[in-house]
Amino acid sequence: MTAFVLAVAVGALFALGTFLILQRELIRVVWGLVIVSQAANVYLLAMGEIVPGSFESVPVLAGHGEPGSGTTDPLVQALVLTAIVIGFGMTAFALVLSYRVYEEHDTLDVTKLGDRE
Amino acid sequence: MLVALLTAVVTLLLRQRVRARVVVSVAGGLGYALAVAALCWQVVLAPDAPGIATYQVGDWPAPYGITLVADGLSAFMLAMVATVAAAATVFSARYVPSSERRTFYHPLFHFLLLGVTGSFLTGDLFNLFVWFEVMLMTSYVFVAFYGGPLHTRAAFWYVSLNLVASAVFLLAVGGLYATVGTLNMADMARRLAEPAAYGIDTRPTVGLLALLLSVFALKAGLVPFQFWIPTAYRAAPPPVTALLAAASKKVGIYAIVRVSFTVFADAAVVVRLPGIEPTTPLAFVGAVLFVMATGSILVGGLGAIDRDSLEGVLAYSSIGQVGFIAVPVAVAATTTAPGLRRFAILAALVYALNHSLAKGLLFLAAGTVRHATGTIRFDGLGGLARHFPTLSGTFLLGALSLVGIPPLSGFFGKFLVFDAAVRADASAVIALLLVGSLLTIAYATRAWNRGFWGARSPTVEDATIDPVQVAVLVALATVILAVGVGFDPIYRFADAAAGAALDAETYVDAVAPRGGESG
């Protein structure tokens, strides 16, 4: 069930993101990029699963007595965290950049960007 | 082996004063080259070299920890990048105006270097993604560096494309993790070699491999992912463009070689495509690469002939040249004979080395021309040859090396690529290479005629030239000449690198992942 919901969510996010990237307005393109990268994050998260905790999969537990009954996959969580941080930085940069584009070109319409060089 | 990374980081920390920073930056660039040389010596060239060195970050054993691996292939690539990087740092010390707005140039330059180094050394797929991002983020800033309308537009395309590529890369990484159960490349190779033992369903891996290929091809600028190159290269400052052409593209090539020949070489995976015989992943990669390379050589060559500015020609020629590197890789992937495969990889590496050196030299020369005359469009240039014989001489040398005239490094690159094609007995490949070479000759000649011969334009007449920049050019040109004349050690180094690229077994053993059931 969870897998199904996640699959639908990832699919919807990708569709929405792609739709936005293909827009003419620059800010929408940025939003589209953000949504696509979030979709990738959700997908990454969905790739992990809940497994019986063991020293093999969670080596940190080895120093702390008995492993718990079930743990999520820590690696996936770490990956998503990293991806989120990178995505956050990129979003900020893309927004600043689109502001600069607006300053230089006086427009945010992609089709009109080429006019002034 | 971490000296290379440390040098870059230390340079960054010492960035207080403008003048001091320039000095530190140059010292860092040279120190980087030295560190890489030491690494190469230790890993590959020394008489009792192990051929491969690994470092488990934080002492976590693979596959849990992050592994850094330096084998012949990484070392060769690093040596190539370091040569150009050292030249580019010295060059940029004189090129970039040290005004208030430009203060972040040098730290960023070293971050770019750091990203490239990391990509070459990492032994883990997700870390490859992270290093890619490190490298890309700095290159975004450089493309937008001058902040004019042209630059912001180029930067926006560049950023958008690469963000999409990053998302795709994440998808591929996540998918591979879910199917194979590891991200460590050595571990992945081992598991894919016997999927049954680890309970791996191999069907999705092919699609994921294709996703990875598309991302790497975007980085390398292969057709059909080439369209960001001309605008981005024109927008970035020339020393950075030299480094982008010499290093970032090679990261794409390196990633393709590493993933296909180390991770997927022994994979017991069968590719089933509609209408095509079932085949191995390598043959699949080979076919795809060959199509891409064909497109690159044609688009790059034809595009370069048509440009009206020096950097335009160089950017398009970059696309074509990457095609030349991809052809032998494709040959290596398609063939089944181990000897030929090794030879083809060797050819690709030598050609990549030549391309890095020559293209680095050419972009830096273009930068010098722009610095001196304020323009790089052909209609503003002319008569450079008589006015600045040294500068023009180095440019000519770089161009000749691209064309492949002995005794320059380009000759051996071209020769080996052709030789690989002949040995593979593929007449289509040979024809393609011939057409590509003719195109190279055509656009190199045209650029030379229009920019350097003919009547002197007023801008050229008034121009003065920076001696340090020319000195750097001469140094690089000497390196090209030296590589061409004393080719034997380079050949052995490249041969070792090619051997390392194909020797997945040693790679796996060196990283020594324990068979943990993680995930």
Automatic annotation (TrEMBL), chain A:
Gene Ontology CC annotations of this record: plasma membrane
Transmembrane segments: 6-22, 29-55, 75-97
UniProt main location, coarse: membrane
Annotated localization: Cell membrane
Signal peptide: none
UniProt entry keywords in alphabetical sequence: Cell membrane, Membrane, Transmembrane, Transmembrane helix
Top-level taxon: Archaea
Presence of the UniProt keyword Transcription regulation in the record: no
Topology relative to the membrane: Multi-pass membrane protein
InterPro entries: CPA3_antiporter_subunitC, NUOK/Mnh_C1-like
UniProt-listed PANTHER family: ANTIPORTER SUBUNIT MNHC2-RELATED (PTHR34583:SF2)
Entry protein name: Sodium:proton antiporter
Taxonomic source organism: Natribaculum luteum
Automatic annotation (TrEMBL), chain B:
Main localization category: membrane
Keywords: Cell membrane, Membrane, Transmembrane, Transmembrane helix
InterPro entries found in the cross-reference section: CPA3_Na-H_Antiporter_D, NADH_UbQ_OxRdtase, ND/Mrp_TM
Record-linked Pfam families: Proton_antipo_M
Transmembrane regions listed in the UniProt entry: 73-92, 104-122, 128-148, 155-178, 208-230, 251-271, 283-305, 312-331, 388-408, 428-448, 468-487
GO cellular component, one term: plasma membrane
Membrane topology: Multi-pass membrane protein
UniProt domain NADH:quinone oxidoreductase/Mrp antiporter transmembrane: residue ranges: 123-440
Subcellular locations according to the entry: Cell membrane
Protein name per the record: Complex I subunit 5 family protein
Organism: Natribaculum luteum
Organism ancestry: Archaea, Methanobacteriati, Methanobacteriota, Stenosarchaea group, Halobacteria
